[in-house]
Amino acid sequence: MAAKEDLFKKITSHAKEYGFIFPSSEIYDGMSAVYDYGQNGVELKNNIKQYWWKSMTQMHENIVGIDSAIFMHPTIWKASGHVDAFNDPLIDNKDSKKRYRADVLIEDYINKIEEKINKECDKVAKKFGESFDRQMFLDTNPRVLEHKSKMQDIQKRYADLMTNNDLAGIKALIEELGIVCPVSGTKNWTDVRQFNLMFSTKVGSVSDEADTIYLRPETAQGIFVNYLNVQKTGRMKIPFGIAQIGKAFRNEIVARQFIFRMREFEQMEMQFFVRPGEELKWFEYWKQTRMKWHLALGIPKENYRYHDHEKLAHYANAATDIEFNFPFGFKELEGIHSRTDFDLKRHQEFSGKKLQYFDSELNESYVPYVIETSIGLDRTFLAVFSYAYTEEQLEDGSQRVVMKLPRVLAPVKAAVLPLVKKDGMPEKAHEIMDMLKQDFKVQYDEKDAIGKRYRRQDAIGTPYCITVDTQTLEDNTVTVRERDTMEQIRIGIDQLSGFIHENIKPLAL
Ligand code: GAP
Predict the structure, then answer these.
(1) Ligand 1 centre from 483 Cα, in Å?
(2) What local confidence, expressed as pLDDT, does residue 2 receive?
(3) Index of the ligand 1 atom closest to the CA of residue 337
């Protein structure tokens, strides 16, 4: 655990040191759970957006994109249920005066049991060596089974209490489990209260007449309320999807884990409109398709897992999360939900406008059912960033930190480096820059020894370093050093563009 915490600290400081992520308003001591993306961070973030946008709107002929406003009519949030129910249960410790999410305290407790299982497993694995069958141990060991059953029992009890909005019951569960405040170490808890996560503000110049509006807590509602506009103007036929990338805002009580849980963040959401009765088929399709999207980045599949929801929200008839193995354990990265016709029906009811679709094949009108895929852009950033962070001991005894980012997402695709700052090498390097910058984000660097320049590029995850040397001036060839293997090949300048293009592609989707 300590090693993992240590790793997470290193990752956050690397993100700052190399211009990926800065704390927001840092010179004013920062703002909790708000971050700014620096010169390399914004490139990585834009590349993630592009990879998602292309996979949705270019690789699927029946999905189009929109960009709806952040401000929306306040009744939208009544219809969607956010005004009444977009709450987190919070609890305060009277001694430390610290505020916690009750569900997170319980989740942490469950995670500790999971850690115990893993420790137990590691201990036995050490003893038995290669002959150890981990899965068999997890499925049959009595102590592990006891731990698992305890975890399931707590999860079920908590879900039931939440469904019944039994806040006193949640407090009783926290007390029964003996959960203490991590700061004061005491069990001196207040009652549990519900806390609405939406930020509100006023619109209009005269405050008396001002209306309360909300900063959107999800981008999805902008899609729902525009679905007929898009369907009609785009002549879309069911099944079809609408995709959107944009900011969302939540007044998170527990602001922690860097960009994992922020108050201002970005979502990439897609609503897929289908015939009633066909939603579970499409849910399965999107479950598989979204996992393929993650794996096409080349990050090994053991870093991902599904978490199917047993307890479903009242509007959903199937739901799963794609979880990622973050430095602090497996956590939700993306949600895939079969949301039935709940949202559209509610908007129909609250707006008084018909939101039906005429299906010419069936010759009938209906409110479509919706499958939603919803992924956090910042969480995807954190997933690829933390996976990529690698410390390596090299043969010559030196150390390097290399960001093994999926090449398609790397902020800079190639660095062009003249071996020395003379003999016409910088001029040749600039010629190469001019040629490549039409197609790729490239960087020129002539400062310091070549080894140091390689390290700088490794630290931001640049897949290729192109070096101009004496031979280049004679035969128009350069060396190309690959980031992960550090192997070098020699190729003609005229081959560079094709070479980079071919090697930065993600796996086929
Ligand atoms: N429209 C459905 C929806 O918003 P959600 O599970 O609340 O569902 C979807 O959010 C995704 O948005 C999550 O899987 C996560 O990746 C991201 N997300 C949610 N809250 C976040 C936060 N406070 N900070 C960063 N990302 C967040």
Answers:
(1) 33
(2) 62
(3) 2
CA–CA dist 354, 377 (Å, integer): 33
Strand stretches in 217-278, DSSP E: 240-249, 264-274
Ligand 1 pocket at CB < 6 A: 218, 220, 250, 252, 261-262, 265, 267, 269, 332-335, 372, 374-376, 378-379
Checking 319-323 for CB contacts under 8 A at 24+ apart, the result is 320/287, 322/290, 322/291, 322/294, 322/375
Residues 6+ apart with CB under 8 A from 231: 240, 273, 357
Predicted structure pTM score: 0.90
Residue nearest to atom 19 of ligand 1 (CA): 376
- DSSP H helices, 296-405, are 342-351, 377-388
Mutate to test the pocket of ligand 1, among 35, 332, 333, 380 (most ligand atoms within 8 A of CB): 332
- Residue 405 confidence (pLDDT) above 80: yes
Q: Quick one: how far is CA 172 from the chain centroid?
A: 34
Of the two residues 300 and 125, the one the predictor is more confident about is: 300
Q: Quick: pLDDT tens for 30-85.
A: 999 999 999 999 999 999 999 999 999 999 999 999 999 999 999 999 999 999 98
What rounded mean pLDDT belongs to the chain?
94
DSSP structural state of residue 409 = G
Ligand 1 mean position to 380 CA, how many Å?
Answer: 11
Rounded to the nearest angstrom, the distance between the alpha carbon of 470 and the centre of ligand 1 is 53
Helix or strand holding residue 85 (H, E): helix 82-85
Q: What is the pLDDT of residues 450-486, one digit of tens each?
A: 999 999 999 999 999 999 999 999 999 999 999 999 9
Q: CA–CA separation, 270 vs 285, rounded Å?
A: 14
- What is the whole-number distance in angstroms between the Cα of residue 337 and the centre of ligand 1? 12
Per-residue pLDDT, 314: 81
DSSP state of 57: I
Please name the amino acid found at residue 22. F
Angle (nearest 5°) at CA 145 between 144 and 146: 90
